[in-house]
């Protein structure tokens, strides 16, 4: 369903809903930022094999997939804001299970449920954000939303050096934090006046047909984002940089990305949104392509920071354009489609980039991702002209 800019021009934002959404999604990203490294470190300290650690991590991905497929049925039976609160409470209970139990099987089930609950929060929050926000503010609110996600992912792993991996204290503290956020979110919802509409699994797949370029944008984001996080640190080590440099590069990737999103959001509200999307894709492509030709570590980190900010900006653009174009149940369907295609893109980004580096050498990694982003940029420009 198309939006009506004339009607929306003077619409008031639903600020209690926007605050609740940002609180919830930040909590989701903190929980995921804690869980990914902390679970692996604890299992490794217990002597669990790398293979079993990998199998355990699959539980989270399976939970994400299950939530996507069940989203239509759930939204038809329950209100979306109630599902978000249930997701926050579920995440808190899963983290508490990590703190209380030591069974690998229990942890697998907990990671499945954590992925399920976190996915509900993520998908419904995106849809609700677009419902609660008028189009004149959509870019700026989406930019702040994206910055909150980045900040949460960056803050989550800090629980490890602060509280260690023993005794489950990091899990327990994060569980308490999520429970408090769930209470705050429930309190704010008494003042909200909007809520996402129900959707269906059929709508999710219909969205793929109706918005192929938005789907392509999210795929490109997932592909390039995970390539930067998982493959580029390996690239740096293989090209003669230290492990400390590779670790610093991840921090350099995350912080400017969070800072840049509100500025991208402002640009989305002031400039033609497809031009902002094309510009961010072009900057990401050029940054990837430039890295193999840079020698100075400072210049490499600058290019890497630009790469991270531009890559995540693709998602901020896609989220803003989703709310600009669609209404009703298609908003929730679009958010679910985004989650699904991001999972596919990130899986392709980590596996293909690693394989390309093995076959063609380290430089083939960033060059191939840069070339893929350049092709996407050209395709997006061609599609707009048509």
UniProtKB/TrEMBL annotation:
Keywords: Membrane, Transmembrane, Transmembrane helix. The keyword Cytoplasm does not apply. PANTHER family: MFS TRANSPORTER, TRANSPORTER MFS SUPERFAMILY. It holds the Pfam family MFS_1. It comes from the Bacteria. GO terms for molecular function: transmembrane transporter activity. Residues 17-386 form the Major facilitator superfamily (MFS) profile domain. The keyword Cell inner membrane does not apply. GO terms for cellular component: plasma membrane. InterPro entries: MFS, MFS_dom, MFS_trans_sf, MFS_YcaD-like. The chain crosses the membrane at residues 51-71, 83-102, 108-131, 143-163, 169-190, 211-232, 244-264, 276-294, 300-322, 329-352, 364-383. It comes from Mycoplana dimorpha. This is Putative MFS family arabinose efflux permease. CDD domains: MFS_YcaD_like (cd17477).
